Amino acid sequence: MCGRYAVTLPPQAMREHFAYPEQPNFPPRYNIAPTQPVPVIRNHEGGRQFLLMRWGFIPGWVKDAKDFPLVINIRSESAREKPSFRAAFSRRRCLMPVDGFYEWHRLDKESRPYLFRRPDHGLFAFAALWETWHSQDGSEIDTVAMVTGPANGLMSAFHHRCPVILAPADHAAWLDASARDDDVAMLLKPPAEDLLEAVRIGTAVNRVSNDGPEVQAPYDATPENRTAPAKPRRPVEPPAQGSLF
Fold it and tell me: Structure pTM?
């Protein structure tokens, strides 16, 4: 679930919304896929920090990342207990900025993609955990995965789980490494029913290489524009810490 998402609003809008001092300059991304570097916001030296991390969490104890499965989602119910995520849940919580994400609805033999976004098309944030992985050759890579929980009523028609979307008022508490785990866990709940809308879109999102506005174009049901849906392809692993854009 939620294997693709988008960050399309101007960098200045995201900087103002999340209040970090860095001034990254980047074009819109309409089809962000696992293993790609993604924007992340964390607490750092008394303030917030913007940086890029690999979407695919690697616990610190892993010796060879090639032997570890790709982890892009972490279950909220077990994050505090599982050895792979326990330390990150206590000390390395972060936000993944987003203004839209995608889910596929299976109907008969057809898989229909949908865009989930705020009705005002504004920004929101996934709850996420991060970890710096040290390879045997001495290199480091910052990795991240979103936290997921039970779906709300809207999402449940597509999948029984969805990303945990934090209310803006809860961002500070989630990022605060000194907060008690029990208090932080209370923030992990389904999104409000009126937070998102679902828009059926065309099949351009199925291809990782498609990363323009056409990805979010509404579905066109006219016969000349109907094509058989393409099966989503797993993205190829890019070089470590490559450019996000």
Answer: 0.88
